[in-house]
Design goal:
The chain has 145 residues and is α/β, with parallel strands linked by helices. The protein contains 8 helices and 5 strands. α2 links the parallel β1 and β2. The longest helix has 13 residues. The protein is globular, with a radius of gyration of 16 Å. About 7% of the residues have low confidence.
């Protein structure tokens, strides 16, 4: 990591406390803070100081994905909308979506003209190409960079 990222605080807002093992792994990075709360509630986002964030990452709740596939991305979309309404204009928000149909709801919804199948159309959306949205299958690639 470069020196500017090394000193940047990382705030993790979560409903559940991390296990001691997870906490130990994450604290090795330094400047990691855990706040118990829900990113769906604005008061918790304010407690996490999201309004001064430079970057925000919204991860999909895997338990919701198993319970209802129709609404798997609903919470992530609501969180992204809340963050966008509270943050400065230069805050980069990255949202994990389980379904590519959801991509059109993040930022610009127009696709780049391509007469290929739906899968390619989802990947041609400006929100995906600009890095504002990613699929769960691409998470490993993102974390390795």
């Amino acid at each position: 990591r470069n020196s500017s990222c090394r000193d940047m605080p990382v705030v993790i807002l979560t409903d559940s406390n991390p296990s001691p093992y997870e906490r130990h792994l994450l604290e090795k990075f330094g400047n990691i803070h855990f706040i118990k709360g829900s990113p769906l509630r604005r008061k918790d986002l304010y407690r996490a100081k999201v309004e001064s964030a430079k970057r925000c990452v919204v991860l999909c709740d895997s338990t919701r994905c198993e319970q209802s596939s129709d609404t798997a991305d609903a919470a992530s979309l609501m969180i992204a909308l809340n963050i966008n309404s509270l943050c400065m204009d230069d805050c980069f928000v990255l949202v994990e979506c389980m379904y590519r149909e959801t991509f059109k709801m993040i930022r610009e919804s127009d696709t780049v003209k391509n007469k290929q199948e739906d899968y390619v159309q989802a990947l041609m959306r400006p929100s995906f190409m600009s890095g504002n949205v990613f699929t769960s299958s691409s998470l490993d690639t993102i974390l390795c960079q």
